[in-house]
Specification:
single chain, about 400 residues, alpha/beta, FAD/NAD(P)-binding domain, 3 domains, 8-stranded mixed β-sheet, binds flavin-adenine dinucleotide
């Protein structure tokens, strides 16, 4: 078996598989090492709700046949209110989406090795030159990419990863049929063709829960949160399974609903500032960094954008007659990441931490404000614009801001 490539990528998630597609399309020799066996792929890694937007579908040429349901609205719910925004989206069948990325990459010339669990970097003179996988197998590359999501064996082995357990968000979702989607009661919106996110500590303390319509009376229903200070403030001793069950037991929209067999998705991602992103011969992409948007957990588009930034940086390093994969040259990736992939990450993390610390009644006020403010202000606040964020704050928020400031000082 061949043991040397231009680029070796660990992990066939959206980030790794997209990076392979881009590099193979540019004619590079690429191998992707994926821990799961080919005939069951994706199994445990089939973890995502797959909510996304046309910007991702168009930018990366994703076909309609991996979409379960196109949606027209994004709905935000608080315990006693809801806010509806017209916005086209798509709920992907995540397994089909992953399979498409792999097959399309293979057609473009990328090699895939399944059942290939990457364990550690192979280094020479302190720099990564290859990876060890499936026990003692070895493969070498000019550039190595860690796209294994939160497990990050290469980034950790090189001391590039800053992922911390205390920042790990956990999520669980069931696919249900028989869900009451048409509102009916004044406090609920019509969730047909909608992606709904709910802010309510009763069901997701220090996080959010969701219902994404997947056609007829079916939906993906889940919860996620970080077990940090907000969780400790509002949480009980339930597990994530316990919270999802509690929601299903108490929300009237699930009264006649049944779980679809085998349709359960579980996973985690880190919500924290990025640390180092690259070093000599090496880049970390997707959730390994982490790239996921802290506020609403949009990780697919972000991860794929980081994959494209890494492919551009690899092309930049490998194109010259004498390739230069030094840390300095490869740091083009870092520049693109901060400029195009996750701009204003600090401001987004600030809103996230503040929002999930707020009590339930503050969520009702937030929704009233969302209805009152113009769409441009909302869009700017969502992007982390401080002036727009200030418009969402009230005098009554002073105690909340004080608690938040104390927390930040403690951390
Ligand atoms: C419950 C849940 C719901 C979500 N919903 C949404 C959503 O609606 N919309 C959205 O945009 N994002 C969502 N996300 C986030 C999104 O799924 C992730 O951000 C995205 O999958 C990250 O892609 P990735 O390629 O970086 O990593 P991953 O998807 O984690 O892929 C990593 C790949 O590497 C493989 N791997 C792991 N370790 C090794 C190893 N040692 N060796 C070789 N291979 C390895 C894994 O099997 C996997 O195939 C959700 C996440 C969860 C957990």
């Amino acid at each position: 078996m061949r043991d040397s490539f231009d680029v070796v990528i660990a992990g066939a998630g959206p980030a790794g598989a997209q990076c392979a597609r881009d590099l193979a399309a540019r004619g590079y020799d690429v191998v992707v090492l994926e821990t799961e066996p080919e005939d069951e792929f994706p199994r445990q890694s089939n973890k995502s709700t797959g909510g996304t937007f046309p910007s991702m579908m168009t930018a990366f040429g994703i076909p309609d046949d991996v979409v379960m349901q196109f949606t027209d609205t994004v709905v935000i719910e608080s315990p006693n209110d809801h806010f509806v925004q017209e916005q086209t989206g798509a709920v992907l069948e995540f397994a089909d989406f992953k399979t498409f990325l792999v097959e399309d990459g293979q057609e473009r010339g990328a090699e895939y090795r399944f059942d290939a669990r990457v364990s550690k970097p192979i280094t020479e003179g302190g720099k990564i030159v290859g990876v060890q996988y499936s026990g003692s197998e070895k493969v070498y590359g000019d550039i190595i990419v860690d796209a294994t999501g939160p497990s990050a064996p290469l980034a950790k082995g090189l001391g590039v990863s800053s992922l911390e357990r205390k920042n790990q968000a956990i999520g669980l979702e069931y696919e249900l049929e028989g869900v009451e989607l048409d509102g009916g009661r004044p406090r609920y919106a019509d969730l047909h063709d909608a992606m709904m996110l709910r802010l309510d500590h009763e069901y997701a303390p220090g996080g959010y829960s969701w219902i994404f319509h997947t056609g007829e009376d079916t939906a993906k229903v889940g919860v996620c949160y970080i077990q940090n200070e907000s969780y400790q403030r509002y949480g009980t001793d339930r597990t994530v399974d316990g919270y999802l069950q509690h929601w299903m037991d108490t929300d009237p929209r699930f009264e006649g609903a049944e779980r679809l067999e085998g349709k359960q998705h579980r996973g985690s991602a880190h919500i924290q500032p990025p640390g180092q992103l690259s070093t000599d011969n090496f880049m970390a992409i997707g959730d390994t960094v982490p790239t996921i948007d802290p506020l609403w957990g949009e990780g697919i588009n972000k991860g794929m954008k980081s994959a494209r930034a890494a492919a551009i940086a690899a092309d930049h390093c490998l194109t010259p007659d004498t390739p230069d994969t030094s840390a300095e040259n490869i740091s083009l990736y870092d520049t693109l990441w901060h400029r195009d992939v996750a701009p204003r990450m600090d401001a987004r993390l600030f809103i996230t931490q503040l929002m999930y610390l707020a009590p339930n009644d503050r969520y009702d006020t937030l929704l009233r404000d969302l209805k009152r403010l113009d769409p441009d202000t909302l869009s700017e606040a969502n992007k982390g614009n401080k002036r727009a964020i200030r418009k969402l704050l009230h005098l009554d928020d002073i105690p909340l801001l004080a608690t938040f400031a104390k927390q930040r000082l403690r951390n």
